[in-house]
Amino acid sequence: MSQIKTLLDRRTLTLLLAFAGIKLLLHLGINLWSGYEIFRDELYYLACADRLAWGYVDQPPLSIALLAAVRGVIGDSLFALRLLPAIAGAALVFVTGLLARMMGGGRFAISLAAIASIVAGEVLAVSSIWSMNIFDLLLVALAMVWLIRLIDTEDPRYWIALGLTLGLGLLNKVGVLWVGLGVVAAIVASPLRRWLATPWPWVSGGVSVLVFLPYVLWNATHDWAHLEFIERAVSGKYSGLDAWTFLSGQILHQNPSTLLLWLSGLTWLLFAPGGRKYRPLGVIWVTACVVLIANGQSKASYLASTYAMLFAAGF
């Protein structure tokens, strides 16, 4: 962590905090004076928080445990319900700008990345209501921080941070599996594969599995309820989705105004000589995208957690 602090001089830190503050004030203001009434999904999450468990039919337990903690501390008013998502959204803006700085960007690049994170439609939406999704975006972005630090410093301790963060991501949302597959592909397809001769990647994977294990055991003792939920969703409400809907949805979900930024970020990571060092991040996005397209009925939002790194690389 001290090594990350060295990347942030006072002006850069102030800039990141300013953009995060704008994001936070935007949501706090809306929540106080003009927000929508409670969303139907939030009623379900509140009901889940009354019955804490290691799993639920449609999701792992982390976001529900957080909701129960919030209710216990500040109650369940509409403002209280949406306070933590607003804070997490502001944290995501900060981390997105930090990623830009870590990949060599100056204050202009940091500003572009942070602004993109503020205006991205998916981030705006999931920062405005309680769900597991904003925590998904934040945890994956944090995982990319640890991956970049691992690339830059070759400090094996970042393998543990990476595994722990991805494990928490899985305990929040199963869709982090696609990111995990991307990380595996990135390791194999980059100089990171030399680490496979050491215990560290395996320990990292073991940490992720250990953190996620309670939800797996819950499913094993509840007739694999989540697998049945996915099967029914794919055959029912998601049956009309296709690859074109998924791909075109990326533009809409991330806001068309950010398209050139994240496309340039992806191009830089995959093809530019200057981005070679951080190419594993581009491989992660491509792998997750290909897996979701191959699924045939993926929602566009399933890829949303991978865009912070593209915004950050698009300078």
Briefly characterize the structure.
The chain is mainly alpha-helical. It contains 16 helices and no strands. It is globular and about 50 Å long.
Provide structural commentary.
- The structure is a single chain.
- By secondary structure, the chain is mostly helical.
- 71% of the residues lie in helices and 0% in strands.
- It has helices at residues 2-5, 10-33, 40-49, 62-74, 78-102, 107-119, 121-126, 133-153, 157-172, 176-188, 200-220, 225-235, 243-253, 259-271, 279-295, 307-313.
- The radius of gyration is 19 Å and the shape is globular.
Ordered list of secondary-structure elements with their pairings:
Blueprint: H1 2-5, H2 10-33, H3 40-49, H4 62-74, H5 78-102, H6 107-119, H7 121-126, H8 133-153, H9 157-172, H10 176-188, H11 200-220, H12 225-235, H13 243-253, H14 259-271, H15 279-295, H16 307-313
Helix pairs in contact: 2-5, 2-6, 3-4, 5-6, 5-8, 5-16, 6-16, 8-9, 9-11, 10-15, 14-15, 14-16
